[in-house]
Amino acid sequence: MALPSRLARSSVRRAAFQHARWSSSAAKPLSLKERLAELIPAEIENVKAIRAAHGKKSFGPVLVDQLYGGMRGLPALIWDGSVLDAEEGIRFRGKSIPEIQAALPKAPGGSEPLPEGLFWLLVTGEVPTQEQVAELSRDWAARAAIPEFVEEIIDRCPPTLHPMSQFSLAVTALNHDSAFAKAYQSGISKKEYWGPTFEDAMDLIAKLPNIAGRIYRNVFGQGKLPAIDPAKDYSHNLATLLGFGENPAFVELLRLYITIHSDHEGGNVSAHTGKLVGSALSDPFLSYAAALNGLAGPLHGLANQEVLVWLRKMQTAIGEDASDEAVKEYIWSTLKSGQVVPGYGHAVLRKTDPRYTAQREFALKHLPDDKMFKLVGQIYNLVPDILLEAGKAKNPWPNVDAHSGVLLTHYGLDQMQYYTVLFGVSRAFGVAAQLIWDRALGAPLERPKSYSSAAIQKMFKDKP
Ligand SMILES: CC(C)(COP(=O)(O)OP(=O)(O)OC[C@H]1O[C@@H](n2cnc3c(N)ncnc32)[C@H](O)[C@@H]1OP(=O)(O)O)[C@@H](O)C(=O)NCCC(=O)NCCS
């Protein structure tokens, strides 16, 4: 939902207001699908109005450098769930991380937002009630089982196969039962695409804990996978499947973790890949599996693994409680050997990532004396100046990955090759929400124009 004009937006909101939270006929809160069905017609009109009014306006010139430079800053996508500001960081449907921490429903006794609420917000632009969030928890628990053959695929993977590769294989295989693929085969009308896409998106999110938990236990030998408990929220169930469900602080961490990793606007590799593949009308399982393969790269989601690997190597090389001088020297040695400092820098952000700050605040509350947390803080005081002095990175500040692994390690989830899987579970929320809207709004096949270097030379021949 783009909803650009405040006027259009408020009249749509007013019209829907009576129905926003409760159906008129019974005292039962609207389900997410019911609320979405209400919102779609107005949003289709809204997009039509934007295109009629502004469709032929230019966003500005495209530089040749942008073609060679990974399309940085090129305005090319619509993504409604979140927008990333270089200075301020992410906003989910207009709300900053502190704002969603305050606004979204919490678990009884908890203080972190429930990712169920974040998904509702991403899909509708509205903050759900506690009851609507509880209904989503129940719905996802009811959809959580994975087919036996998918369990077998995971069980047959050698433990040496990276958990992200196993994750992607299993998600691809879920396409076997895709509601969208079946509906498409039986000739569904384009106007109805969003319905089965919604069902697949819900199934995708719901099944990820069973996949992620099974991979974790297979690879790291942590006993038999327990069953999903329909009375628990999504994060609590995932924590239980990983073997940490008895630790309330870990469960809270997971709620925060999933929420802040869910979405980071549309241009990052995983989000864009999901959208691109979805534009070919590949179902949400195929689209998200493709996104996961992008997330598995070290410049993207794998950076959370890389940070821990780097910190451990540093501790082996210079010991725990090392002096600032020794840490500085280690950071310089990383740079001089042609490697990046993992967890620092960003393609868009130019300030400390608020997702880093949210995790730091969690650590200050729950684990202020943890040695690795202290090392992360020490590094934060040293790396930016060093990257500035080195003179290459446009953003010397930490990103989300600089912090996440240390928190997981504190609670005993110290198998760093697994960290990107948790990022993958989280990122499904943002990609799934956008896939639903893309199909609801009839987003077309993506097909940007590519050029050869020879064509560019020819284009500018004799032009100074
Ligand atoms: C995230 C990242 C891929 C963004 O890349 P980008 O948009 O190309 O970043 P920049 O424009 O600032 O890159 C300019 C130069 O600075 C370097 N640079 C950027 N971040 C750096 C870092 N953390 N350490 C060392 N060098 C870095 C780049 O490698 C590039 O070098 P080059 O000109 O020799 O190719 C990059 O900052 C990086 O590799 N960070 C470490 C990995 C990481 O934390 N990834 C998770 C991102 S959420």
Provide the fold topology.
Layout: H1 6-17, H2 32-54, H3 64-68, E1 82-85, E2 89-92, H4 97-103, H5 115-124, H6 130-142, H7 148-156, H8 163-173, H9 179-185, H10 194-220, H11 234-242, H12 248-261, H13 269-279, H14 284-295, H15 303-318, H16 324-336, H17 354-366, H18 371-390, H19 401-410, H20 419-440, H21 453-459
Antiparallel strand pairs: 1-2
Helix pairs in contact: 1-2, 5-20, 6-10, 7-8, 7-10, 8-10, 8-14, 9-10, 10-11, 10-20, 11-12, 12-17, 12-20, 13-14, 13-20, 14-20, 15-19, 16-18, 17-19
Family: Belongs to the citrate synthase family.
Keywords: Transferase
GO molecular function, one term: acyltransferase activity, acyl groups converted into alkyl on transfer
Features:
2 strands, 21 helices, 58% helix, binds coenzyme A, 2% strand, Cytochrome p450-Terp, domain 2, two-stranded antiparallel ribbon
Polypeptide structure, described:
Helices cover about 60% and strands about 0% of the residues. The protein is mainly α and about 475 residues long. A hairpin with a 3-residue loop joins strand 1 (about 80-85) and strand 2 (about 90). The longest helix is centred in the middle third of the chain and has 27 residues, at about 195-220. It is globular and about 65 Å long. The two termini are about 45 Å apart. Bound molecules: coenzyme A (COA). Coenzyme A (COA) binds near residues 303, 342, 343 and 347.
